Amino acid sequence: MHPIKYAFKPISLVLYCFFLSNFLCAQVIPYGNNTQAGKYYNVQGIKLYTEEYGNGKPLLLIHGNGGSISSMASIIPYFSKSYRTIIPDSRAHGKSIDTGDSLSFEMMADDVALLLDAMKIDSAYIIGWSDGGIIAIDLALRHPEKVIKLASTGANLWPDSTALAPALWKEEKRHYDSQKDKPKITPDEKNSWKVFLLDWEQPNISLVSLSKINTPSLIISGDNDLINIEHTIQIFQHIPNARLWILPNSSHGTLIEYPREFYETIHQFFGSE
Questions:
Q1: How many H helices and E strands in the chain?
Q2: Would you call 214 helix, strand, or coil by DSSP?
Q3: Span 114-163, pLDDT tens digits
Q4: Domains along the chain with CATH numbers
């Protein structure tokens, strides 16, 4: 191997400090716990915690099951350079406390629509990952006027082993069987079980219903995703104005493994006619 050589060009101390401070800030922004960027919005009886970064056309990022705003940290710096980037903690996740007994993707899609209303935003670009991708699809079905374009990565339409990788489905079944009869006492136990059941019992979206989506859609998967690639292709095939993007050498975490490519491809898709 050849030794790596670094060539430094003269740069003023002021500029150096400017670039360094920006780099350090990018590394230490506490996404999901940023009091300067965070705010609560009253939505359907709960306070939905939301952070906002950047300027431009509105873009909503929706995280996955068990995640929070911090789950999207790998792509927030990219998209906030070009968009008014809005990231909520979904209900029953992060700081968005939900003490109710029920939880559904339809409810969460309605949350997103009402959040945009509360922020006085008519419509936005949407990026959803995993459960967030399901919410994005449900949002396009239930509130199409709120969605300019959507990108959905790692979403499924139903919860069985024809959609999920068989190993994942078996793992979830083992967890369900071992926990279903155990009493859930504390608020955390009740919430964790409710969030788990969301993926065990849902979603239940038919392929036929996807034909109602007129929103331009980019359907995304890793080639080694937890969602069967055949299932992702079915989603793409049944949305009239959809494109398909399969990331090579990628698992379920497409946006974490390839954040720059994720930004560049979706930014190009959002900007296209």
A1: 9, 8
A2: coil
A3: 999 999 999 999 999 999 999 999 999 999 999 999 999 999 999 999 99
A4: 30-271 (3.40.50.1820)
**Cα–Cα distance between 26 and 20 in angstroms, integer?**
10
Q: How far apart (Å, rounded) are the C-alpha atoms in residues 73 and 269?
A: 21
Q: Which amino acid is at 85?
A: T
> Does a cis peptide bond (omega within 30 degrees of 0) precede residue 203?
yes
Q: How far is CA 28 from CA 22, 23, 179, in A?
A: 10, 9, 38
- Beta carbons within 8 Å of 197's beta carbon, 6+ residues apart: 103
SS3 content of the chain, % helix, strand, coil (to 5): 40, 20, 40
Q: What is the pTM of this model?
A: 0.89
Side by side, the strands of the sheet bearing 242-247 are 38-43, 46-53, 83-88, 57-62, 124-129, 147-153, 217-222, 242-247
